[in-house]
Design goal:
InterPro entries: Aminoglyc_AdlTrfase (IPR019646). This is Amino acid transporter. This protein is an alpha+beta fold and 200 residues long. It has a domain of 132 residues: Beta Polymerase, domain 2. It is built from 8 helices and 10 strands. The strands form 2 sheets. Strands 1, 2, 3, 4, 5, 6, 7 and 8 form an 8-stranded mixed β-sheet that branches. The mean pLDDT is 93.
Amino acid sequence: MAGRWRETSPTELSGWLAEAPVPWAFAGGWALDLWAGTVSRTHSDIEIACLRADLPALASALPGFEIAAAQNKVLSPWQPDAPPEPPFSLWLRRQGETLWDFEVVAEAHDKEYWHFRRDERVALPLELAFVTSGDGWPVIAPEIQLLYKCKEPRDKDIADLGRFWPLLAPSARSWLRDAVALAHPEANAMLQALDRMMAH
């Protein structure tokens, strides 16, 4: 998928979304760093998450942005009245700019639960899906973000898992183990190795 990303900061992005009428949260590597209160590495882009049903309302709060739908490695103008097929994300840039400013990823859900968009058998109560960091940043729950990093992890994903796994609450680690066993069983051994490292 063609595209280049501008180095948008969390503070700048939060300002653009100050009038958003629906919940949203930082996602990706930035979500983990904001949750932990550190900048652990360089980030090549920045993204937020929102519930799939809230996409039109979120986009309506960003009238000065060009919005493209990213599906099957193709970008096309987003049609808010055309329900997207999951998985789904939006790329946004300010009108007239050549670099993309940020991405919005749509999270699957029903009235009570967030669902993993790669395997909707994996669920978490909606009130636990988006959390607030100690510094007041809205972030997707770190166990959810780490789950996304367990499919064919890149070097930076493996590094993030090693860095943030010990920081999770025991209940979050337990949920993530169960989620990985169901959706990405090939990553079980990686989490078991992290547990062994913590035990020493």
